[in-house]
Fold this sequence. Notes:
By secondary structure, this protein is mainly beta. The chain folds into three domains: about 80 residues, RNA Polymerase Alpha Subunit, Chain A, domain 2 (Beta Complex); about 90 residues, YbbR-like domain (RNA Polymerase Alpha Subunit, Chain A, domain 2), CATH 2.170.120.40; about 90 residues, Beta Complex (RNA Polymerase Alpha Subunit, Chain A, domain 2), CATH 2.170.120.30.
Amino acid sequence: MRIWPFRHFGLKVWSVAIATMLWMVVAGEQTVExxxxxxxxxxxxxxxxxxxxxxPSVVDVRVRxxxxxxxxxxxxxxxxxxDLRTARSGRRLFQMTPEQxxxxxxxxxxxxxxxxIALSFEASAIRVVPVVPALEGSPAAGYRVGTxxxxxxxxxxxxPESAIERVTEATxxxxxxxxxxxxxxxTVTVGFVDPTLRLRAVKPASVNVQxxxxxxxxxxxxxxxxxxxxxxxxxxxxxxxxxxxxxTGGRKALGDVNPDSLxxxxxxxxxxxxxxxxxxxxxxxxxGDVVRVSPSSVQVRVSSDK
Length: 306
């Protein structure tokens, strides 16, 4: 079969022209350098170890290549890689070389900063802690928060041994009881303030907040404070000289109390000159939380009577 070199001559000319143009475009591109901040990927993580919270997540890299190639780089095209298969408990130092940076074809790594990375490792531990719901806001007027329950009541937390020893509870995102006049039920996320801790099984918690009618209250303002057992030859000055008495309870409980018979007082027996913080008492004593004092303690200055 004879080969005709000029067969499809026009197509061959166009092919040569296009190839020449492409070569000129590529050859005309400048070689440039560019600084990038790229993610740090940790590979071959040993089981039974936890990474400290101070571990970096990015490194700075200088790359070299044609302007077109570098301009086409996208997120994740350049990644720093550390192999952790030899890691063990304690603070360890890992070198970062250009060979440990993954790049596309046509891109060269010139420099990596920092050249070494310190990582801290601890043995992993597990602990069961209670879930403590976080509440925000106040119920509607005349109501108060009663019993708060959460399901599940406890969770398993995983993390470094030192952090596991410190953690005492898991918390939830806030549950609002603002202006509530009936029970509040909400499904919320459970978590920890310490970022090195995590749940063994991630699942939401159901929080049930009981909203109860608040007991009736009666406030007796500015009841004069009595000073008892003032030592001979001394005088005393309380600050403040009067306190408020708050009567709390149902209508029957309040009805059984004679407000005029309630006397707030402090005991000065066995005291010498000086300044003291003393607890305020009320006579007659009433069982339960029927009477509260505000403030519950006062400053008393004891000095010579001369």
